[in-house]
Amino acid sequence: ENHLDPRQLTLSFDTACMRRAVELARRGEGCVEPNPMVGAVVVSAHGDIVGEGFHERFGGPHAEVVALAAAGKAALGGTLYVTLEPCCHHGKTPPCTDAILAAGIRRVVIAADDPFHAVAGRGIAALRAAGLTVETSLCEEDALRLTAPFRMLITQGRPWVIAKWATSLDGMLAAPPGEDRWISSAESRALVHELRGRVDGILVGIGTVLADDPLLSARPEGPRRAVRVVLDSTARLPLDSKLVRTAREWPLLVVVGPAASSTRIGALEAAGCEVLEIRESTEGQRLGALLHTLGERRWTNLLVEGGAAVLETFFTEGLVDEAWAFTAAKVFGGGGGGGGAPRAAGIVLPKLPEPPPLLVEEVRHPGGDLFVRSLVRRA
Ligand code: AOF
Ligand code: ZN
Predict the structure, then answer these.
(1) Within 13 A of 295's CA, how many CA atoms are on the CB side?
(2) For residues 36 and 323, what is the distance between their CA atoms, to the nearest angstrom?
(3) Residue 21 is inside which H or E element, if any?
(4) Which residues surround ligand 2, an ion (CB under 5 A)?
(5) Which of 26, 29, 32, 35 to mutate to test the pocket of ligand 1 (most atoms within 8 A of CB)?
(6) What Å distances lie between residue 340 and 335, 337, 344, CA to CA?
(7) pTM of the model
(8) Is the dihedral of CA 97, 103, 105, 111 positive or negative?
(9) Residue 298: left if φ>0, alpha if ψ -120 to 50, beta else—which one?
């Protein structure tokens, strides 16, 4: 005969609640960093959803505390679903494990561990020691992806790197002179501005600045104001560039090498730029040292916007975590010279010892372009 397996029912309800918690967590994107995005759902002993919450901003209450406050007395004897192991340390707020015990929760379902040294398994242990039922790893893959930039910062000491580029259908990275200066559609550019508004930094090479004179700000502004970063080993950045002229409004970090003259450095500093000198000898070491410094500043997300040589270095050094590629349905031609611009794929990929394994996470068609967002998978 045909009857429902009650365990199957429980499993799918648990999964639905955890998916909801993951969805809630994502609302904190751009506001919580360098903290992780976390979401929580409280289900009463009767099986009703009685509270929801997420970590809304850095320094604010944690997801569990928000969800438990919403549930009030209805949490007694209930279940808490949370996307990250509850904390058990006194940080900017008291331990979530205490709040969970005080609310009378009986069962806690956790999607992923917290790699932060003050927690790292101790949150789970504290709840078990208090006699609660604790289950782990439900929707773990989603929760790990959700907190991947946080985990990169905690475990590797560097920000998550997002590489972005736009090309024509024939692989040209920039329009030939005289053409419409935009490659991608207005909708594609709006997606990039949204991204710019939630990252900690937006990085380009000096070549891109000299060619395009970009502003690199988010328009409209997002939840955070990214620092604009220029890789400029000899400090060639023009004082009348848009970047330098707006340096007092939007922070600008100029990364120079030992060959940069102190006069140029002084002029950039006087114009409101921060100049960071990196002395390592190889390109790879310099990039590693820069990312390490940015990690010390607790940067969680860095957007790399080009040009081709900078993208190539990041890929070659294995420092790209996520790729945003826009392809416009336009053919520029000119690959044989005569105004032709560099080929993105042609320059970036074939020089790699091994092409990075990409996992496509999203495909869209903003304004008629093709947008592919993918993740670089590592062993
Ligand atoms: C949780 N629930 O919603 C979050 C957690 O700076 P604080 O005091 O807010 O603490 C931040 C640390 O707490 C962070 O590094 C991470 O380990 C954890 N974040 N934990 O139980 C939450 N956001
Ligand atoms: Zn907490």
Answers:
(1) 19
(2) 21
(3) helix 6-26
(4) 62, 87, 96
(5) 35
(6) 5, 5, 12
(7) 0.91
(8) negative
(9) left
Residues 374 and 72: their CA atoms lie apart, in Å, by: 41
Q: What is the arrangement of strands in the sheet containing 79-84, beginning at the earlier edge strand?
A: 49-54, 39-43, 79-84, 107-112, 133-135
Task: Report the C-alpha gap between 284 and 297 in whole angstroms.
Answer: 20
CB 242 within 8 A of CB 209: no
CA distance 46 to 33: 36
How is the beta sheet containing 274-277 ordered, strand by strand?
A: 274-277, 252-256, 227-231, 201-205, 301-304, 160-168, 322-328, 370-376, 358-364
Assigned token pair, 312: 């190539």
Annotated catalytic residue: which of 52, 64, 312, 322? 64
| Cα 54 to middle of ligand 1, angstroms | 11
Atom 10, ligand 1: residue with shortest CA distance: 91
Query: What dihedral do alpha carbons 16, 378, 194, 276 form, nearest 10°?
Result: 140
Separation CA 300–CA 290 (nearest Å)? 14
pLDDT digits (tens, 9 = 90+) for 157-189: 999 999 999 888 887 776 555 445 668 899 999
* Residue 166: burial class (beta carbons within 10 Å; 0-12, 13-18, 19+): buried
Which residues of the chain register pLDDT less than 50? 178-179, 336-340, 342-350
Contact call for residues 348 and 357 (beta carbons, < 8 A)? no
Specify the pLDDT at position 379.
64
Which residues are bridge partners to 43 per DSSP? Answer: 49, 79
